[in-house]
Design goal:
single chain; 330 residues; L-arginine/glycine Amidinotransferase, Chain A; 9 helices; 18 strands
């Protein structure tokens, strides 16, 4: 072990969690409305339309909502620490960072550090989010992770080629790859693809980079009504997964074909049943008020740990979006 109480690297989404970065509500400002922001709820979309061509600063526009968001993120960090997990929080943006790519899409968020980066094995990968206002998130996260990478000679710090500049509403060729679309099981990576997040160019880049290290990448086309693969599927322990099958535009990949699938309704998927975090292969942190899902997990020996997370999920993500695992046991 290094001077930290964990070793950098993540190997399977339900391996025991040792260290994570938890998001922050600091400086949250959502971009001016355009049609690609349809994953936001109706109330947020209306507020964005009303703010015109300026980003909506949440602390000023919705102070109570902002405060509750900050409290729930702190409660998640506290839950992890009580379970022996080392927690890091990103620093606020500098003024220069806040202006980064603003000509493409102004705005700033640190809520969901699982999306702009991905850790698999000893590889720390800065990926490309389709929404340009979120690409600056890599900078505060880099400050957290750089000392950990420097302390471990076996790590790799990889930056994906930048996405070709396009205005948010026109899509562009990318390559786009988002952490919320990647699920890791041992040496398999399952990658969601759609017209609203990761695309085939992103998957192909990941294949080119990671497969020489012994990984297999499995593209999983989606219909594009849910933002990420993690919005419809999660591996909670060996042989058990939660799945909202209707959103998939493919069969389950071969490594998962014989798994015990807990089928979800659309309502359960939209309530973020799959967007939880496994502390290990026996405990799954998930948003509250999903009674049946918790019962199904308990029947299979997985304890559901329910937390109030409605203020964080109001902005379109949930527990796993605001948790970037940087150390998980194999």
């Amino acid at each position: 072990m290094n001077e930290h109480d964990f070793e950098f690297g993540a190997y399977t989404d339900f391996g025991t969690l040792r260290a994570a970065i938890v998001g922050s509500a600091e400086g949250l400002a959502l971009p001016p409305f355009n049609p690609t922001l349809h994953h936001y709820n109706d109330e947020v979309q209306a507020a964005l339309k009303a703010s015109g061509d300026r980003p909506l600063e949440i602390f000023k526009a919705m102070p109570e909502r902002w405060e509750k968001t900050a409290v729930q993120l702190a409660a998640l960090a506290d839950l992890y620490e009580k379970n022996g997990i080392r927690v890091y929080r990103p620093r606020p943006y500098s003024n220069e960072e806040r202006g980064y790519l603003a000509e493409l899409q102004p705005g700033a968020s640190l809520l969901y550090p699982a999306d702009p980066v991905y850790t698999v094995g000893k590889h720390y990968i800065e990926v490309n989010i389709r929404r340009a206002y979120r690409r600056k998130e890599v900078f505060p996260l880099r400050d957290v992770v750089a000392p950990l990478l420097a302390a471990d000679p076996d790590t790799h710090h990889v930056v994906m080629p930048p996405a070709q500049p396009f205005t948010p509403s026109s899509g562009g060729p990318g390559p786009y790859l988002e952490g919320g679309d990647i699920i890791c099981y041992k040496n398999h990576l399952f990658v969601g693809e759609s017209d609203i997040a990761s695309n085939r160019a992103g998957t192909e880049w990941l294949q080119d980079y990671i497969e020489p290290f012994g990984y297999t990448v499995h593209p999983m086309p989606m219909k594009g009504t849910v933002l990420h693969l993690l919005g419809i599927m999660v591996l909670v322990c060996e042989g058990v997964l939660l799945l909202f099958r209707d959103e998939l535009d493919c069969d389950l990949p071969e490594p998962l074909r014989d798994w015990d699938v807990i089928e979800l309704s659309e309502d359960e998927a939209r309530a973020f049943a799959t967007v939880g975090v496994s502390l290990d292969n026996k405990r799954y942190v998930m948003p509250s008020h999903l009674g049946r899902v918790g019962e199904e997990l308990a029947r299979r020996g997985v304890e559901p740990i329910e937390i109030e997370y409605d203020s964080v999920s109001y902005w379109g993500g949930c527990v796993s979006c605001s948790t970037h695992a940087i150390a998980r046991d194999p």
